[in-house]
Amino acid sequence: MRTLYHLWLSPFCRKVRIALQEKKAEFDLKAENVWDRRPEFLAINPAGEVPVLIEPDGTAISGSQVICEYLEDTIPEPAMLGKTPLERAEVRRLVQWFDEKFNREVTENLVGEKVNKRFLKLGQPDSSAIRAGYTNIHHHLGYIAYLVDRRKWLAGDQFSLADIAAAAHLSCVDYIGDVPWNESPSAKDWYARIKSRPSFRPLLGDQIPGVPPPKHYADLDF
């Protein structure tokens, strides 16, 4: 049985969880408080970061994109990166967009400031960062709407890792109730389709102690 070391509100860990579910790969979840810097965990991943996937033979693979590419190589169906070079390029472009740009402009400014700082005891949230997150998320929802108004899914006609990465980040922000869904019906409809996928259901059952999600978080119809 595989084991995935993760954190509950890490979009990168959620990305891997969804990918594993889509590939129908069985795995156990093990929460890792990376701030504890456990020597046993550092021996597995010297970077001290999650996600880390442990294969049944003990092999450790770390990093969300590395793990997802590894899964694509070892469990090729269903394909999550596209079939042609151009399709794969577009999927990877959008994965990078959400894992880097969206994460920097939205996830870190909202989830990082409002939740992660609390657990890491890093002081009070930065109000200017939170305001920036609120401003930036409007632009990103607009971009999602632009894409899905022209395509069935973000990268094209097929559900892909681009949708997984975007939904993983949005699910973390949605957990704290900070996604203005009503301003973007197209983005909301796209996210509702992802929420209804069996691979996404386990995320909707997540409960972080002391930080309950809003009522609509687990509602497939919002």
How would you characterize the overall build of this protein?
With 222 residues, the protein is of the alpha+beta class. The protein folds into two domains: 2-74, Glutaredoxin (3-Layer(aba) Sandwich); 85-198, Glutathione S-transferase Yfyf (Class Pi), Chain A, domain 2 (Up-down Bundle). It has eight helices and four strands; from the N terminus they run E-H-E-H-E-E-H-H-H-H-H-H. The protein has helices at 11-22, 39-44, 64-74, 85-120, 127-148, 161-175, 185-195, 201-204; strands spanning 2-6, 27-31, 52-54, 60-62. It has a four-stranded mixed sheet with strand order 2-1-3-4, covered by helices on one side. A hairpin with a 5-residue loop joins strand 3 (52-54) and strand 4. The longest helix has 36 residues, at 85-120. The model has no long low-confidence stretch (mean pLDDT 96).
